[in-house]
C-alpha cells in the first residue's frame, strides 16, 4: 500500500512514539510537519524497515520536513504517570515545539489528549498509512536507538545495543543476574515468575 499525505491542509503534524513496551530506557516521540508535495522512496512504518534503511531515511526526513521535534521521557516519568500517559505527553511536548504550529494533528494509534485546542485524529496503524506519521515513527525509533546505544556503554551487561531495552530473554537474565539500573522502569514487570517469552 502506498503511503500518502493525510490532507492538503498546510500544517498537519504526524506524531508517533517508540519504546512503549521496553523494560528500560525512555519512551521517545517525534512530531513532523511535511510539505504538501513531500515524497520519499522506501518511507514506511519504522518497524517494517531495516535499521540501515531507517538510518538512511532520517537525514532525508530532517532535511525535507518543514519542522520536526523529538522528545525522550525518562523512566522516572513513565513510572510516575504510566506508559500510556508518558507516550501521549512525549507526543504533546513535540507538538508544542513545532514551528510553525500545526493546524491539525494525526496520531498513530487510538489514544491521545487535546493539546492547545488543536484538532486531531487518531489513526490505528497510521504509521503504515500516512507519510507524516511514518516519518515521525522513523525519527522516534532512530533517536531512541541512538540513546540506547549510548547507555549501553554505561551498562554493557544488558546488551541494550542489541535489544534496545525490550524484554528479551537475554535482557531478563541480565536483570536477574545484575539487578536493575537507573534506566529500568520500576513500574514494569521486569521479571515474570518464569523466564519464558510468549512470542
Automatic annotation (TrEMBL):
Domain RNase H type-2 residue range list: 10-199
The alphabetized list of GO BP terms reads: DNA replication, removal of RNA primer; mismatch repair
Pfam families reported for this sequence: RNase_HII
Checking InterPro entries in the record gives: RNase_HII (IPR022898), RNase_HII/HIII (IPR001352), RNase_HII/HIII_dom (IPR024567), RNaseH-like_sf (IPR012337), RNaseH_sf (IPR036397)
Keywords of this protein's UniProt record, alphabetized? Cytoplasm, Endonuclease, Hydrolase, Manganese, Metal-binding, Nuclease
The record's section on SUPFAM superfamilies has: Ribonuclease H-like (SSF53098)
Q: Does the keyword Metal-binding apply?
A: yes
Predominantly, its location class is cytoplasm
Which CDD domains does the entry mention? RNase_HII_bacteria_HII_like
The prosthetic group or cofactor this protein requires is: Mg(2+); Mn(2+)
GO MF annotations in UniProt = manganese ion binding; RNA binding; RNA-DNA hybrid ribonuclease activity
Q: What class of enzyme is it?
A: hydrolase
Q: Where in the cell is it found?
A: Cytoplasm
**Spans traversing the lipid bilayer:** none
The UniProt entry, under NCBIfam families, shows:
PRK00015.1-3
Role description: Endonuclease that specifically degrades the RNA of RNA-DNA hybrids.
- Family affiliation: Belongs to the RNase HII family.
| Name recorded for this polypeptide | Ribonuclease HII
Q: Where does this protein come from, organism-wise? A: Flavobacterium suncheonense GH29-5 = DSM 17707
Show the taxonomic lineage. Answer: Bacteria, Pseudomonadati, Bacteroidota, Flavobacteriia, Flavobacteriales
Amino acid at each position: 500500500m502506498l503511503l500518502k499525505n493525510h490532507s492538503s491542509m498546510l500544517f498537519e503534524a504526524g506524531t508517533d512514539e517508540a519504546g512503549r513496551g521496553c523494560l528500560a530506557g525512555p519512551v521517545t516521540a517525534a512530531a513532523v510537519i511535511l510539505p504538501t508535495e513531500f515524497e520519499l522512496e522506501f518511507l514506511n512504518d519504522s518497524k517494517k524497515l531495516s535499521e540501515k534503511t531507517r538510518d538512511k531515511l532520517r537525514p532525508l526526513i530532517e532535511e525535507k520536513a518543514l519542522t520536526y521535534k523529538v522528545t525522550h521521557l525518562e523512566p522516572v516519568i513513565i513510572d510516575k504517570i504510566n506508559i500510556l500517559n508518558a507516550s501521549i505527553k512525549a507526543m504533546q511536548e513535540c507538538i508544542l515545539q513545532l514551528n510553525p504550529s500545526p493546524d491539525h494533528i494525526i496520531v498513530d494509534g487510538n489514544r491521545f489528549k487535546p493539546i492547545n485546542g488543536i484538532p486531531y485524529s487518531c489513526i490505528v496503524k497510521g504509521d503504515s498509512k500516512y507519510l507524516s506519521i511514518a516519518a515521525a515513527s522513523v525519527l522516534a525509533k532512530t533517536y531512541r536507538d541512538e540513546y540506547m546505544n549510548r547507555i549501553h556503554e554505561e551498562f554493557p551487561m544488558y546488551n541494550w545495543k542489541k535489544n534496545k531495552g525490550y524484554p528479551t530473554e537475554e535482557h531478563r537474565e541480565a536483570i536477574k543476574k545484575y539487578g536493575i539500573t537507573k534506566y529500568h522502569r520500576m513500574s514494569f514487570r521486569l521479571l515474570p515468575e518464569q523466564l519464558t517469552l510468549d512470542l
